[in-house]
Design brief:
By secondary structure, this protein is an alpha+beta fold. It has 2 helices and 7 strands. It is elongated.
């Protein structure tokens, strides 16, 4: 029996392949940041509530330049099941507070914030570029 594939089948296979590639790349980058990353201090600047999730925005200095990202590994999940690759955060962060995060220079747009490691040492905060 010979299976005949139409254009729609090829389109579906391509679409699924792209989705799998994006997910594998995301997991690879997160693992590289976790394993090869160095610790930095980041500042919590805002959060954006969406219908079923929340984005946490942080700023940090890289080579003397201020950068901002919401790719932080923090994820407030409103679903019952959650992804194991991200930190499901139940508490609330205070805007303007500093936290410890992992950063990999190969992927400067991604950081992994530890919401339980609040930084209050002003010398350490200044060391990482904040005034």
């Amino acid at each position: 029996m010979k299976i005949k594939l139409s254009f729609g089948h090829y389109y579906l296979i391509l679409f699924i392949s792209v989705i799998v590639f994006i997910q594998v790349r995301h997991n690879y980058i997160q693992n590289k940041v976790k394993s090869d990353g160095k610790y930095i201090v980041v500042k919590f600047i805002s959060k954006r509530e969406k219908r079923k999730s929340t984005d946490y925005n942080f700023s940090y200095y890289v080579n003397g330049k201020l950068d901002t990202t919401n790719a932080t590994g923090l994820y407030k999940n409103y679903y019952v099941a959650s992804s194991s690759r991200e930190i499901e955060f139940k508490g609330d962060l205070k805007i303007g507070t500093y936290y410890l995060a992992k950063f990999n220079p190969e992927y400067p747009e991604r950081i992994i914030v530890n919401p339980e490691k609040e930084i209050t040492d002003s010398l350490l905060i200044k060391k990482f570029g904040f005034d």
